[in-house]
Amino acid sequence: MRLYRPRVISTHDRASRADFSRTDPAVVALLDERWARRFGVLPLCLDDGALLVATSNPLDLDAERAVAFATGHRVRWAEAPAAEIAQQIARWYPEVGTRAEPAALPVEVQHLGFDSSSRERTADESASAIQLVDQLLAEGIQAGASDIHIEPEEQGIAVRHRIDGVLRQSRLLARALAPSLVSRVKILSGLDIADRMRPQDGRARIAVRGTVVDLRVSTLPASHGEKIVVRVLDASTGLRTLDAIGFADADVTRIRSLLDQREGLVLVTGPTGSGKTTTLYAALREVQARGVNVVTVEDPIEYRLPGIVQVQVHEKAGLTFGAALRSIMRQDPDVILVGEIRDRETAEIAIQAALTGHLVLSTLHTNDAASAIARLVDIGAASYQIATAVKGVVAQRLVRRLCAACAGTGCRECGDVGYRGRRAIAEILVASPEFERRVAAGAPPESVAEAARANGCIPLWESGLALVRRGETSIDELRRVAAEPARQVMEPPAAARPVEGPTRIGWTSARSGAVSGALRAQLLAAASTLSGQVEIVQLGAATPGGAPESTTPAEGTAPRPLDAVVTLAALGNPGHASLELPEWCVSPTRPPLVVALAPEGATGEHLRLLGHDANVVLPATTHGRVVLATVLALLRWRGG
Ligand SMILES: [Zn+2]
Known about the structure:
By secondary structure, the chain is an alpha/beta fold.
């Protein structure tokens, strides 16, 4: 026989009146919007271990059970009219579409945690300063800034946002506001408002329209007063997958192949702000799914990774990277993340771990993949050990994407900048026997890079150029983040002087129509006046972004390389300008001189890309006779 016990609902008897001013965004976040809307309830705060939830019906047992199950907390009801709850739900779970709407300012900013202000809020901290700081923070966060700079200058207080890696001014405020503004930010982040002479670091947690945001605040005494930088910690950084970072598919495949290794050292390199940490965290999450023991040593730990042991380095307390690593090695890890290899001790332990059955991930501050090897040698690691330990190096950058709405000309969507969002480009070195041999022999970076290229590593600049050609970013943006390789000067060796016979000039056009036809006719006419000294070879049409349809040489004649190629580029996607010639056209010792004809209306972007691919760029309106004369003069000058 079973005893039936009636449910005790005495706690509901005294269901208090809901106080929405106590609503804690972190607590709201505990309950999925679906449930809140379905049952017409809103979690307010945690009270003595129980979840205080607003409801219009305290006797709704289904709701109580569902909310308790969904949040993992005991539920205590607080009563409020259904209409009022609906209003609050709409406020705390805003529609996705309206969430990012900047027009909805002024925004409510809630100050959570790290905020000692409640007791310190003094009379001199005027309500307007509070409001102003709230607004500045909300504006920056909603604009997608990673950092908000507040800097007193001669003319006023400049407020700047770093968006997609680039700093730009958002506002200029009156200088008189500086003292109260600085004080308010300091109070918010738990700093000493009386100390204006020393740099300080603090943290704050706020909620902007229901989204909790952690801030790291630093102050620095400068000539016109204290400068403040607020770093907005993006909680999604630690949660992004490799696929979501914006690497090319082939790059993701190469990175995964490196992570598939059970032992060895995999390095991610690039300057500050190139997304190294995001990549490493994404890598860790993939590796973690294998059910291995993952441990990290970091300085600082910015994002908590669920299920992973993260150790914070404390140099002052003697817990250096090296010391932390040595302790970790006794904890039976499978995968170790070393935030950064800065010194010989760390390098040696990391390499030792990589050589003894551990997958070790780390970062280095080098510009390209091959230089990472040289850096390890500089730090003091042994070449033969580096050669065996290093399985791969990912050199990466983040490039801004051209705004999809305006294609880079500037519009409301992108705040007149022309760019919106970023994606990653990478140069991925994968170890090969030849790579190992060269590294062990202490070969210079150029030689290591050559071995890497032979094993499929595409240089960073080339990866970026592919995006420029597809119109995803601009060449200026690529230049901002990656160094353009010096161009090889074509210097034909004396032994490879041209063979006898007419000068052979290839003609190809990416366009059909009058301009192309006229130019071709002019070229042929001009060539015919030179009584057999010049031969014009018709190549197939230059297809967008690819090779001209391969044309075989005239019947019966042996293929003879071309001395020059004249190409009429198409307008539109700058990638159309690229030119790949059939193999038979190109002498290995004496590449043809390439003359590109830029169509009328070509932009600076077109011209720069054409200039990258060609030796000479001329306007398409140039008469064929002049084009031919130019080609012949240049060939003579080159030693033809
Ligand atoms: Zn735009």
